[in-house]
């Protein structure tokens, strides 16, 4: 028992309409990406004006083991708390 009528079939698309759609084309991906300016690296922490962030990055990159920024900061906090006896 059908509750709604059978949907009407869409009119068949002509070959000319299909060819026109294909010929229309689009932009090349590399051109679209080249238009956007490069963003500076983002980080969730807000650093005060100055070179504190640059010093942090230099120290992190100079270490023998490359750690993610968040891990490096957490490790530095833990070391400071141990030094302070907290």
Q: Average pLDDT, to the nearest integer?
A: 81
Structural class: mainly alpha
- Which sheet architecture does the biggest sheet show? none
Tell me the number of helical segments per DSSP (H or I, 4 or more residues long): 4
The coarse silhouette is elongated
Kindly state the percentage of residues in helix. 40-55%
Question: What's the total count of β strands?
Answer: 0
Low-confidence stretches: none
Distance between the first and last residues' Cα: 76 Å
Strand content: under 5%
Helices and strands, in order, run as HHHH
Radius of gyration: 29 Å
Question: What is the multimeric organization of the chains shown?
Answer: single chain
Structure, described:
- The protein is an all-alpha fold and 86 residues long.
- It has a domain at 62-86.
- The chain is 50% helix and 0% strand.
- The protein has four helices and no strands.
- The chain has helices at 15-24, 29-34, 52-62, 69-84.
- The N and C termini lie far apart (76 Å).
- The mean pLDDT is 81.
Write the layout of secondary structure elements.
Blueprint: H1 15-24, H2 29-34, H3 52-62, H4 69-84
Task: Tag the structure with descriptive keywords.
single chain; 86 residues; mainly alpha; 4 helices; 50% helix
Please sum up the structure shown.
This protein has helices spanning 15-24, 29-34, 52-62, 69-84. With 86 residues, it is mainly alpha-helical. The mean pLDDT is 81.
């Amino acid at each position: 028992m059908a509750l709604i009528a059978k949907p009407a079939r869409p009119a068949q698309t002509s070959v000319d309409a299909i060819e026109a759609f294909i010929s229309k084309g689009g932009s090349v991906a590399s051109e679209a990406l080249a238009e956007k300016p490069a963003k500076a690296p983002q980080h969730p922490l807000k650093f005060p004006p100055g070179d504190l962030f640059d010093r942090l990055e230099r120290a992190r990159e100079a270490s023998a083991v490359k750690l993610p920024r968040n891990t490096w900061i957490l490790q530095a906090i833990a070391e400071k708390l141990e030094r302070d006896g907290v």
